[in-house]
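From: lab user (bench 3)
To: helpdesk
Subject: output format question, protein + adenosine-5'-triphosphate

Hello, I'm new to running complex predictions and I'm not sure whether the block I got back is the full result or only part of it. Here's what I submitted:
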Amino acid sequence: MAYKGKNRIVHILESEDYGKTVTVFGWVRTKRESKNVGFITLNDGSTIQNLQVVIEGSSMNEALMARIHSGASLKITGELIPSPGQGQKVELKAGAVEILGEANPDEYPLQPKKHSLEFLREIAHLRFRTNTFGAITRVRHAMIFAIHKFFNDRGFYNIHTPIITASDAEGAGEMFRVTTLPSLNPPLNETGAVDFTRDFFGRETNLTVSGQLEAELAALAMSLVYTFGPTFRAENSNTSRHLAEFWMIEPEMAFYDIHDNMDLAEDLLKYLLNYALEHCPDDLDFLSKRQQDEEKNKKQEDRSPMELIEKLKFVIDNKFERISYTEAYEILKNSNHNKKKKFQFPVHEWGIDLQSEHERYLVEKHFGKPVILIDYPKKIKAFYMRVNDDDQTVRAMDILFPQIGEIVGGSQREERLGKLLARMKETGIPEKQMWWYLETRKFGSVPHSGFGLGFERMMLFVTGMGNIRDVIPFPRTPLNAEF
Ligand code: ATP
Ligand code: MN
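Helpdesk reply: Thanks, we reran it on our side. This is the complete output you should expect:
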């Protein structure tokens, strides 16, 4: 077929090889026809721009044209000519037009008009063919690539941590079970519970909620490592920021304290935004316009105060505010918002978990920029976070972003065996099951830190999209696993 390199539409549009004969491939976005001339816009996914194709003279064949509609796939050989139209340098004067696959206009659900994002979720198998999802797909790829580049350039090793896991240390009750036991009449033990010793792995197993614990094992030998894999949470929270299956970047660094950890996370986020600005200008431009269109339908107070590209630059240019949970608590408690009872969850007692509305208030209303919160009360954080000298708070760090809330959750880890054991007892984590984790604290333990960046939360921010279902190709959410 010869679809390689130079004849992808992104390259053709950049070339000025007027007079050259090329063969292009792609899907029809629009078709217009007048008496002796037809116009087709063709897209092959390589760019947000379409290639304009002109069909006239001996190439213009009414029977053929009648079979070409939006969504059809074509192979066209023709001559590159300067474009009289605005916005592109070059267009294609068609010679031979071959239809690879027709698309019946009475059935094809994507018409050249604006479709709602909700409707597009119902046709996720076709939504790659829209401008919006083409742009998101390219930006998503650029971000994946940039993440690996960022860590590789800094000497980190990528670790594949297991997807099936027997440890439920992080989120008991929120996991998806993996089993080969029959769902009807599974074997039971003496107590009448399911007998997992007869299951595939001889024990109860689940899909992982995080690769952190295993990444820690690697960091305590390789020093700098990261995982970037799928994670699963069976939380039944139908929000615009939660998926049941999402991707997480989890670096883990030996010899890093909480401050080194914050520096790395801030660097990573800024690096990714920079990378997107540099490598995806056309797509971001499109997404910015899309967002501005969408904003018009929103209430004034829900509108984003900044245009997308301006917003990305603003985050790159400003140091994130770093404050303690206690300081944040005071700000929230004393805010007019709280006094006027405008929070759904009032802020009245030190120790409460911060809700998304509180996080967004700090970021959007109080500081007007990303915020890193550290030193959370230990009772609302996981057992592996390092306990501070006050014995009340732990060295946790959450990064809060505008419109998103929490984008990163991390901590300096508890490296002292005695303190770790005490915390496990306090939080009811079974010691026996975690013997392998504990051994790293017995043998050559070192201060170390890490964090988890939710990839789709990051994608929400970079693309300006409002719903996490629209930044992953095939979202998994409660009651939704169609495609
Ligand atoms: P939240 O409080 O927002 O539900 P969390 O505290 O449960 O998040 P962590 O366990 O700290 O999240 O996970 C690390 C990161 O993974 C979060 O900062 C967020 O970016 C992302 N994340 C967590 N849960 C989800 C989810 N259900 N869907 C998408 N991303 C998520
Ligand atoms: Mn968290």
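A quick orientation on your result: The two ends are 29 Å apart (CA to CA). Let us know if anything else is unclear.
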